[in-house]
Amino acid sequence: MATDSWALAVDEQEAAAESLSNLHLKEEKIKPDTNGFKDFLKFFAFFFLTEDRAAQSLLNKLIRSNLVDNTNQVEVLQRDPNSPLYSVKSFEELRLKPQLLQGVYAMGFNRPSKIQENALPLMLAEPPQNLIAQSQSGTGKTAAFVLAMLSQVEPANKYPQCLCLSPTYELALQTGKVIEQMGKFYPELKLAYAVRGNKLERGQKISEQIVIGTPGTVLDWCSKLKFIDPKKIKVFVLDEADVMIATQGHQDQSIRIQRMLPRNCQMLLFSATFEDSVWKFAQKVVPDPNVIKLKREEETLDTIKQYYVLCSSRDEKFQALCNLYGAITIAQAMIFCHTRKTASWLAAELSKEGHQVALLSGEMMVEQRAAVIERFREGKEKVLVTTNVCARGIDVEQVSVVINFDLPVDKDGNPDNETYLHRIGRTGRFGKRGLAVNMVDSKHSMNILNRIQEHFNKKIERLDTDDLDEIEKIAN
Ligand SMILES: Nc1ncnc2c1ncn2[C@@H]1O[C@H](COP(=O)(O)OP(=O)(O)OP(=O)(O)O)[C@@H](O)[C@H]1O
């Protein structure tokens, strides 16, 4: 389970429990049905966990304007190991149609990203090859398959030839935007969205050459409503496979769509992660695949100075935080809390002290979260208080200090080392030095801190006034 999902689930459970206890106050005679409540929580957690993956993915897309750097090697497993392995260092080498090359350059792409170097020649080969590709979010997968689709379309044929599945309506719109941008100099090329709410007349046929949509609607359009003739599809893309299979029903619908396509249709599947379930699904929908993988860039703690501060209550932790701010100048800090209740309390207290504070938490709409992150990036706020929703995948270069107001724990109350790494990995990026301060307020949390130290085999020192000069240099 993704740890950020866990934090969301914590928040949702907290909210659910609260609203339920309010109900009990009003209707004292009604005894809670504890089993029913547990089922309700399970449903709640499941709903938010699956929703959360799609929301996180959308958030990443909204706040990202650049490629994510990755110096790891690309691993390529070819279907036919005897055929030469091609990779390209420039877009010209791909012999794209001039309108497309123009579109690529207009987007500001000078050269292919690491994953694109290998994926593009494979996807554009003659005959086109099937591909399963995995690389971390932001490494250029979307741009790669969009280019592949645009290259294979015959604009003169006024029927769907490329079909792309996305896990949600919002993600489909984002990919659609990339298609529109890249195909800007190709006016005869049209795109249709097969998403809920997009109602067409019965008996109508779609003339757009590219269709992007969610599995349920695409399935209806291909089978029941017959808006699309699946036998004419040349390229089938399954995007965000890891997010897709987290939603119930999407897996079956995708497989049913895939079964309707012609045998020689090119099948492409993309995913940011490759757990077993994704891999099994990928093999079901992509026959005879080539496989490309790019390992995630490892986060390390080498450039981060870690300290802890001993307190005895939440108020004392807050006081310690104020003392820290009083003692040193901190350029920009991210503060992590376990629940959104604590996060909003802390944000309010810090504001009262005169800090410019931004609050980011799970109940916000993705667009709102993206706007908060953008403002923080621009330096409009100097402190960002958040829960785990924000622990992953967000690059805010100027963050010099990360504060764990609450240490990260999993659902059983054990140290959550992965989340610790992701949280404090927000600082000390790109070779710069960073500072992490952990607030410890009980024997239990001291024990958690000790276990985190052991796990990473890195000493976390107690913060002492003698250290202030040293940490000021990092924090400012
Ligand atoms: N060759 C390139 N040169 C410069 N920028 C690029 C290149 N390819 C993609 N980008 C840009 O990098 C960002 C990330 O690319 P893209 O969205 O394709 O990644 P992704 O791997 O599909 O991410 P996600 O998994 O989140 O969908 C986008 O802003 C995109 O415009």
Automatic annotation (TrEMBL):
A GO cellular component entry from the record: cytoplasm
Record domain Helicase ATP-binding: where: 122-292
InterPro entries, alphabetized: DEAD/DEAH_box_helicase_dom, Helicase_ATP-bd, Helicase_C-like, P-loop_NTPase, RNA_helicase_DEAD_Q_motif
Gene3D superfamilies, per database record: 6.10.250.2170, P-loop containing nucleotide triphosphate hydrolases (3.40.50.300)
DEAD-box RNA helicase Q domain span: 89-117
Assigned keywords, A-Z: ATP-binding, Cytoplasm, Helicase, Hydrolase, Nucleotide-binding, Nucleus, RNA-binding
Reactions performed catalytically: ATP + H2O = ADP + phosphate + H(+)
GO molecular function: ATP binding; hydrolase activity; RNA binding; RNA helicase activity
EC number: 3.6.4.13
Record protein name field: RNA helicase
Organism this protein belongs to: Pan paniscus (Pygmy chimpanzee)
Organism lineage string: Eukaryota, Metazoa, Chordata, Craniata, Vertebrata
Originating gene: DDX19B
